[in-house]
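U., I forgot to send this yesterday:
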Amino acid sequence: MQRGRSLRPLALTLILAAAPAQAGAQSYWSHDELGDQLRSLANASDRATLTEIGSSMEGREIWMVTVAAPGGAPLESRPGLLVVGNLEGDHLLGSTLAVEAIRYLLAQDGQDEEVTRLLAESVVYVVPRLNTDGAEAFFAATRWDRTANARPVDDDNDGRTDEDGPDDLNGDGAITLMRVRDPAGAFMVHPDAPRLMKRADAAAGETGSYTLYWEGRDDDGDGFYNEDPPGGVDLNRNFQHAYPYWEADAGVHMVSEPESRALMDFVIAHGNIAAIVTYGHTDNLVTPPDARGALSEARALDLPAFAAASLEGIHDVGVFRSGGGGGFGFFGGGPRLRGAQPGRDNDPNAGRRPSTTVHRNDVDYFATVSEAYREVTGIESVGIHRAPQGAFFDYGYFQFGVPSFSTTGWGMPSAPAEEGEAGQARAAAGARGGRGSGSGPLDLQLLEGLEASGVEAFLDWTPYPHPTLGEVEIGGFLPYVTTNPAPEMLATLGEGQGRFLARLGGMLPRIRIVETDVTAHGGGVFTVEATIENAGYFPSALQHGVVARAVDPVLVQIQVDPEDIITGDDKSATVQRLEGSGTRHSFAWVIRGSAGDRVEIRLRSEKGGHDTVTVRLGGDR
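Result:
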């Protein structure tokens, strides 16, 4: 591989090739191409229905595909599995995996037992691309890792919006970084990986000699570079749990965006959704919550974080203060507004604080699903992983009360292990690159893994005469390659996700009336008994769903007048939480009636389905 030249990324060149609608994914799709794929799938099968649940800031459709076998129970009474992709604008992989999973389910219905049962007994709702505007930026002439939607935001609080975005100075179609020699700079060339940078450690006798910036000019003349780019709100930071109040890319309030509102309107209207899977930059599938219910530590690339550090302080003179989310992605941290933060600066005794760890009684369910995910997909480790502040999947568990998962959708690329002194030196460089050191092994792992797999992932530092900074060097990770794999991997990855969804769908609660009995006592008095069973793996409600009062109890109702019930259970009897794996619960009513009367018993489980049986007093069911 040649280095030191301004090249269009190999991955992006491959990505831009169009794929035929009838075949598995061979590229990433624009909005129009995605629509063609979805219409092709829906038109070819009576098990897929394409609808719109809303539109974006720029008016693009937000599509949803409902996948289920026709006939049988109404869809709204079946246990539902919701899949959402491409919440972050730069995660094109998410929408591709969602489409390929649909393709797999449709192709395997009637062929694979898990898939056939899933579509016959349940319903799968798929929103392939929530952030339609952010994703479309992938296909622009100049590309950068843009997570946000198209909301205009005055990021630098100067009364103007989107006036200082990235500039492709070297004309290669990709926004990378600039490094500038600066005796007061905080960064130095990594001694073990010269293409990377590390924060100088004064305690170790290291001296900083560089400052890093995003590639571009100071278009608005305020002394900062690319601090007010197009796009404003990261949709996967705009939902109602652990919402990052006052952070610039989280929106003016929870669910402030038309895209997130469209998704929430759908979710609230579909209480049958029993589990959620999202594709994005956070993982709780490969690495499930630990025994305390906490997610693994966030992991972000350091080079972008170092560039974002050059923007610290841009709001100190206004109504903002610096701080934020750790430098993930293009301006992934961001500033915070001054002022009290709800839930943090309020009286801590003024109410129950929201949970941020998985309930101890639910941890084993997440561990089991994680094991299944790794077994089915073969993915054992992931690269970038960010803290789920305002993430939709976090809302799904902590507020909506169902098993809710997020995955990057592909594994951490790895280079072949080296032997001898070179391998030992490489391992030592990774060990010294811990999160506290500021160099970060993730940069090196991703760089070596991607390049070992044939992907041009990095633009080597190349001199450039900057109009205001003087002589700079332009280089760094190329856009999209650290969060989206090479196109030739897409069909295989998507099939793996389809298999996993089928496995997960088989775990949904499935609650039915399995036994009834009628005993006649004479004089028009009868005992009616009914036993229900949860044949699924998940309980009717996770324990946190009970604590949060987010999931209705299982309801069993005998259809007789209340005054005809002499004793026993109430006419409308409930069980708050019915465990899975064949757990049963029985109800009994002593009622007045006449021999031969038919009495209906109805079951309603919000997440586990509906059922109805009719018994005959003084006779058989």
